[in-house]
Amino acid sequence: MKKRIKKIFITGFIAIIPIAATVYIVFFIVGIIGYLVRILPTPLQPDNLLGFHVPGLDFILALLFIFFVGLVIRSFMGNWLVASIEEVIDRIPMVSSVYASMKKMVDAVVSAQSESFKNVVIIEYPRKGIYALAFMTGEAHGEVQEKTAQRCVNVFLPTTPNPTSGFFLMVPEEAVTVLKMSVEDAFRLIISGGIITPHEAVKLKAMSGQEPPPVSVNTT
Fold first, then answer.
1. Is residue 201 within 8 Å of residue 185, measured between CB atoms?
2. Is 90 a member of any domain?
3. How far is Cα 61 from Cα 54, in angstroms, rounded to an integer?
4. Contact (CB, 8 A) for 169 and 179
5. What is the Cα–Cα distance from 62 to 149, expressed in whole angstroms?
6. Residue 215: inside a domain, yes or no?
7. pLDDT 10s per residue in the chain (220 long)?
8. Which of 177, 183, 176, 216 is nearest to 198 (CA)?
9. Is residue 47 part of a domain?
């Protein structure tokens, strides 16, 4: 009974983490917007401009700000601006590597249709007889493939509970087992340290009224 209660508690805790992180980020932006509003000259204060107080104005402005940023980024000028900023970041040692890794990881986690991770796989790591969950990111090419006796694939092996760090491995294709598991479910399994399995994830989605996404398998 004690173990069951503990498991339910941890499952609930892990389910709350993404919600808490989202709320924290939103309120962080709300705090910045509120600060900027307060340092405006008195005649430009929203209450003075509108002639009345609007409850939750900071929150509304924060949502409008996030929407505006998304709108700008989706435009031609926004794409150019983001590309220019990334070009500057690429020239900064260490920072460029961290930024590129984080951006690719976020894209993979947020977008269910992301092509960053082609398949969820299991490999024998760190030794034969021990299995690890990983993501296939592509096929080895060029000198790397020429110098290896077997056909290899590129595999990213994330760490637990922080999947933004991990190991890049080149594994013989025959030593890789492709799973039907979705990238989203694999991330849940890794972040939770094995507590939330795909079966548990389906139950969590059912409890929240969400339908689990269809699982697609890329066997190429």
1. yes
2. yes
3. 11
4. no
5. 56
6. no
7. 777 787 777 777 766 776 777 777 778 888 888 888 788 888 888 777 777 777 777 788 888 888 887 787 777 777 777 778 878 877 877 667 667 766 666 665 555 444 567 789 999 999 999 999 999 988 888 888 888 888 999 999 988 877 767 889 999 999 999 998 888 788 888 877 887 776 654 444 444 444 444 433 344 3
8. 183
9. yes
Are 123 and 131 a contacting pair, CB within 8 Å? yes
219 within a domain of the structure (yes/no): no
- 105 and 128 share a domain? no
155: CATH = 2.30.30
Report residue 70 as tokens: 């998304």
What pTM does this model have?
A: 0.47
Residues 202 and 131 both lie in one domain: yes
> What distance, in Å, lies between the first and last C-alpha atoms of the chain?
45
Q: So what's the pLDDT on residue 157?
A: 92
Q: The domain containing residue 152 runs over which residues? A: 119-208
**Whole-number Å distance between alpha carbons of 207 and 9:** 15
Q: Going edge to edge, which strands form the sheet with 166-172? A: 166-172, 152-158, 131-139, 119-124, 177-178
Domain count within the chain: 2
Q: For residue 145, give the H/E element and its range.
A: helix 142-146
What residues form DSSP beta bridges with 171? 153
Residue among 96, 82, 120 at smallest CA distance from 215 = 120
The verdict on 18 and 97 lying in the same domain is yes
Task: Please tell me the distance from the alpha carbon of residue 171 to that of residue 154, in angstroms, as a whole number.
Answer: 7
